[in-house]
Amino acid sequence: MNSSESSNLNHGGERSLYADVPRIAIQLSRDVVVASIQVDLDEEVLARFRDDLLRRIHDTGSRGVILDVSSLETLDSHEFAALRRIITMCAIMGAEAVLVGMQPGVVSSLIEVGADIDGLRAAFDLDAAFALLESQPDAEPEHIDEVAAGEDSDQVFTLQDSEQAPGEQR
User: Fold this and answer.
1) Do residues 68 and 37 make contact, with C-beta atoms less than 8 angstroms apart?
2) How does pLDDT run across 28-61, given as a tens digit for each residue?
3) Residue among 22, 66, 13 nearest 43 (CA)
4) What domains lie within the chain, and their CATH numbers?
């Protein structure tokens, strides 16, 4: 067996299902799993990410997950739906997920195509995401979307629908 063949083996010596699929960086910080998505997403990347993320949640017992998508300039409705399924899987495992750093064009496109944003938690940056996860560890929003403000603000905005912008009066 040559060195390239041995690098395609997992810990048990079996051939890896995702040998040639890019890996999304996943780290543990402040007892929260942080995934920084900096690669183009496709079905194989999303499948590997799902498996890696769920394994990390299981191994660490983390109660929170931050999905940093600030490097993604595009995110189509299929990729977003796959991320939503992964977020649901995290919730079933007891870990609350927060999306961080969605680009304005991505947000606009997703709303235009009618993407499901119900119950989605999002923050402007990592500090706000950590604050959101630490603020109410056991509370779940009831059919509202929460968007945390940047580090210069203590506010958490709640959105009932995609029409209301942060700071608008109800």
Assistant:
1) yes
2) 999 999 999 999 999 999 999 999 999 999 999 9
3) 22
4) 26-159 (3.30.750.24)
